[in-house]
Specification:
The protein is of the alpha/beta class and 294 residues long. 54% of the residues lie in helices and 14% in strands. It is built from 14 helices and 9 strands. It starts with a strand and ends in a 6-residue tail after the last helix. Bound molecules: nicotinamide-adenine-dinucleotide.
C-alpha cells in the first residue's frame, strides 16, 4: 500500500522503517529536512509539504508533537485537507487533546476524509521493534480497514470507542507512567539515603509486585545518569497539561498528577525540558543533595 507519513521525529522515523520493511511504499514529510533525508535513505520518497503528501496517497499517518501541530498540518495552509481526495483515511498517531481530535475529525469529515485518533505507548524502543501499544478512537469500520497496517508498527491495536477515545486512553497511560517514574525516583532516593545501594534495590524488587515496564526501562537510566530522550520532559508536560484540562472538564480530580506536574515544571525551569522523563530522579537529587546512581 502507498502510505503518506508526516512527522519524522524520534517515533516517526522507526515507524516509517517498519512500514517499509512490511513492503509498503512511504511518502514522507517533516519540516526538518534531515529527518526526511534519514528515511529517504531507507527507501521512503520525500514530499514537499503535507498537502503534497495528501495529493499522492489515500492513506496518511501523522506523528507530531501536540494538538496545534496536528491542526496546522491537517487544517492549515498547504495542509492535508488542501490536497486530500474524499475517501482518504487519516490516522493521527500523535498524543494530543481528545477535544482537538474531535475538532480535527470534524474538519476532515467536511472534506470527506475519515479520521482515527491512534496514539501509542512504548516509546522509541517499541517503535523500533514494531511492538507499540496502539489505542484507537473513531469509526470501528475504519479501524477494521487499517488494523493490519497498524499491526506492522504495533504489538497490539485496541479499539477504544468514538473519535477522541484513543487520546483519552493515552492520557490515562501518561498519568500512570509519570506517577510510576516519580514513585521509582522517590523510592530509590530513600534507599540511597538509608545506605542501601539503589541498584541492588532494583535487582531485588523488579520481579515482585512493584516491578513494571517503567521500572525496567527507567531505573537503569537513573542509575547511569543517562537522560538522553527517549521521551522528553517537555512532551510529558504537554500530556499532563492535556490530562489535567480534560480531567477538570469532566469533573475528575487528578491530585497526584498535579504534584508530578510541578516536579516536571521545576526541571523545565532548570533547563532539563529536552531530557528524558526519567530525569524526575534529578528533582529528588536536588532536594536531597544525594545522587541515585554512583
Ligand atoms: P519529536 O519531537 O521527536 O518529533 C516530532 C516531529 O514532528 C519532528 O520531527 C518535527 O519536525 C515534526 N513536525 C512538527 N511540526 C511539523 C509540521 N508542521 N509539519 C511537519 N512536521 C512537523 O517527537 P516524538 O518523540 O517523535 O513524539 C511524537 C508524538 O508521539 C508526540 O505526540 C509524543 O507525545 C508521542 N509519543 C512519543 C513517545 C516517545 O517515547 N518519544 C512515546 C509515545 C508517544
Amino acid at each position: 500500500m502507498k502510505i503518506g507519513f508526516i512527522g519524522l521525529g524520534i517515533m516517526g522515523k522507526p515507524m516509517v522503517r517498519n512500514l517499509l520493511k512490511a513492503g509498503h511504499e512511504v511518502i514522507a514529510y517533516d519540516i526538518i529536512p534531515e529527518n526526511v533525508d534519514a528515511v529517504v535513505k531507507d527507501g521512503a520518497v520525500a514530499a514537499t509539504s503535507s498537502k503534497n503528501v495528501a495529493e499522492q496517497v489515500d492513506f496518511i499517518i501523522t506523528m507530531l508533537p501536540n494538538s496545534p501541530h496536528v491542526k496546522a498540518v491537517v487544517m492549515g495552509e498547504n495542509g492535508v485537507l488542501e490536497g486530500a481526495k474524499p475517501g482518504t483515511i487519516l490516522v493521527d498517531m500523535s498524543s494530543i487533546a481528545p477535544l482537538a481530535s474531535q475538532e480535527i475529525a470534524k474538519a476532515c469529515a467536511e472534506k470527506g476524509v475519515k479520521m482515527l485518533d491512534a496514539p501509542v505507548s512504548g516509546g522509541e524502543p517499541k517503535a523500533i521493534d514494531g511492538t507499540m501499544s496502539i489505542m484507537v478512537g473513531g469509526d470501528k469500520e475504519v479501524f477494521d480497514q487499517v488494523y493490519d497496517v497498524l499491526m506492522t508498527m504495533g504489538g497490539s491495536a485496541v479499539y477504544c470507542g468514538s473519535i477522541g477515545a484513543g487520546n483519552t486512553t493515552k492520557l490515562s497511560n501518561q498519568i500512570i507512567v509519570a506517577l510510576n517514574i516519580a514513585a521509582l525516583s522517590e523510592a530509590m532516593m530513600l534507599a540511597r539515603k538509608a545506605g542501601v545501594d539503589p541498584e541492588l534495590v532494583f535487582q531485588a524488587i523488579r520481579g515482585g509486585l512493584a516491578g513494571s515496564t517503567v521500572m525496567d526501562a527507567k531505573a537503569p537510566m537513573m542509575l547511569a545518569h543517562n537522560y538522553k530522550p527517549g521521551f522528553k520532559i517537555d512532551l510529558h508536560i504537554k500530556d499532563l497539561n492535556n490530562a489535567i484540562e480534560t480531567a477538570h472538564g469532566v469533573g475528575s480530580p487528578v491530585p497526584l498528577t498535579g504534584v508530578v506536574m510541578e516536579m516536571f515544571q521545576h526541571l523545565k525551569a532548570e533547563g532539563c525540558g529536552g531530557e528524558d522523563h526519567s530525569a524526575i530522579s534529578k528533582f529528588y537529587e536536588r532536594i536531597t543533595g544525594e545522587t541515585i546512581g554512583d
